Amino acid sequence: MSKYVWGVDVGGTFIKLGLFTDEGECIDHFEIPTIIEDKGSRILPDIAAAIKDYMDKNHYAREDVSGIGLAVPGPVDSEGIITKAVNLGWGVFNINKEMEELTGLKVFAINDADAAAAGEIWQGAAKGEKSAVMITLGTGIGGGIFLENGLLIGRKGSAGEIGHIPVNDGETVVCKCGNKGCVEQYSSARGIIRVAKLLLEESNKPSKLRDYEEITPREVFALAEEGDAIALEVVDRFGYYLGKAIGIIISIIAPEVVVIGGGVSKAGKIVLDAIEKYYKDYTFHASRDVPLVLAKLDNRAGMYGAAKILLDELKKN
Amino acid sequence: MSKYVWGVDVGGTFIKLGLFTDEGECIDHFEIPTIIEDKGSRILPDIAAAIKDYMDKNHYAREDVSGIGLAVPGPVDSEGIITKAVNLGWGVFNINKEMEELTGLKVFAINDADAAAAGEIWQGAAKGEKSAVMITLGTGIGGGIFLENGLLIGRKGSAGEIGHIPVNDGETVVCKCGNKGCVEQYSSARGIIRVAKLLLEESNKPSKLRDYEEITPREVFALAEEGDAIALEVVDRFGYYLGKAIGIIISIIAPEVVVIGGGVSKAGKIVLDAIEKYYKDYTFHASRDVPLVLAKLDNRAGMYGAAKILLDELKKN
């Protein structure tokens, strides 16, 4: 094996590229913009060019690098077939093959939520653990499951789809998936904002949330910490419904640890406290002491995980 | 590796012992009674004696057999520590070690629901699949998850505990686990009987179920097939709540197939139909075509799976 691998995380706005040693040290990283135009056809050539450019300028030979791990926003199966990366405008194609042709390097692509889980277990909040479930609280809710033998990819790359676990029989509003009462309706960034607006409408209680033209989860958590009644209720619902979903996941998977990441988790301890108030009530008794921890690698988790998964893949072959 | 392995399934009433080739053929099998007295202290010596006796009588040398796979009714961790096998009267101890000392053979023990999953994927309803989730509908509800790299054992052997997935926010009756609205309260044998009694009390509708002193799931399904109104409602609730739980499990694991087994599943097609009416409503869209199938190995699944897991373990070392 060569000494270095690339970990690349393709987001809707930026692409993060990191050069890693096979020990897990990130020796350099940078970003390029994601050009969505023309159905995302420039994305892979842009990555290939950025890598070539970097390696030329910094005097790396192609033999110094073993390959590229790619984290992408959509399900990827074990052969590299990607589907439903709608944010990038992509159709269905074999991303490993296409990127290998562009770079001449070994490529292995996985879903970005899975990559984040792999990153956190490799060099982040779950470092050294045998297994972990990572919950990514972004606009939606993503899940990554890392087990003793590696990531759980699942049929058609669809394992870990936890945003639509039903947690509220009484919900009357339809989720974008078509069902009602999905955890994403309460505990994603979009869900938190939705619940806040709903409670502000329903209630006459004073709340500083009324002063904002656009509410974000950051304000909700900050105001809850100041004791704002409506914000506290939004955070309580966030914690209750997410806690219920996490209890279910722990009972099924029994991981060593659950890592909470994504933009929403940046509010810190209040996020953990809200979930911890409820999740054990819905967890099988033998697993009630599975700890919850906050993610550590922030938005670099996907880049780290992409590198890690490629290294694992190289070891297999 | 020698030519044969034993697969042993320790139940609360009988212990099933099977002699297998390493290709998966069961060349002979028999049962001995489970003696629960003296805190179950006779169980392992009885198994050891039965194996020795069989091998002596049938002229097998110890070298012909590579080891014993043991399926037991309780969580077993990857080191062989068993806990909570309350039905056998056992405390906490290392079952692999104790059985190895008794027989001089390599021993590997796993939970019986896990063993059943391994059996069905090896030689049963999920034969040839890369992954499967098995749902065992007995007195309670057990789950076994078989992935590409083998069984998902989980922390403290607790993966696959699916009987207490919350599926009904409106439930007022407390489950034996302390929560309310667990799937086991509706879709296990005990749950089906409970719901039947409840509906008979609540309703004045005529039902042949009123003629039975003791209702069993078998009568409920048989009468539902005849169009009995109360029985139909019990079966509908069975399917709705179990379907919801299975949808959640599929969305998290994304297995190739879900196998429905255990005593309750013997009612056959009506069981599948009841679940199929609902489970896709709670399944992530990409996984809605994961098929449900009935188990094939009946009460021999645990014995098969115990042999299979031992063979996998021998290959690792």
Overview of the molecule:
Two copies of one chain form a homodimer. Chain A has helices at residues 37-40, 43-57, 95-103, 112-123, 184-187, 189-202, 217-225, 229-253, 269-276, 301-316, and strands spanning 4-10, 14-21, 26-33, 65-72, 81-82, 93-94, 106-111, 132-137, 141-147, 150-151, 258-261, 292-294. Chain A is α/β, with parallel strands linked by helices and 317 residues long. Chain A has a five-stranded mixed sheet, with helices on both faces. The first copy, chain A, has a five-stranded mixed sheet with strand order 10-9-8-11-12, sandwiched between helices. In chain A, strand 11 (258-261), helix 9 and strand 12 form a beta-alpha-beta unit. The first copy, chain A, is globular and about 65 Å long. Chain A starts with a strand and ends with a helix. The model of chain A has no long low-confidence stretch (mean pLDDT 94). The interface between A and B is large, with 46 and 46 residues.
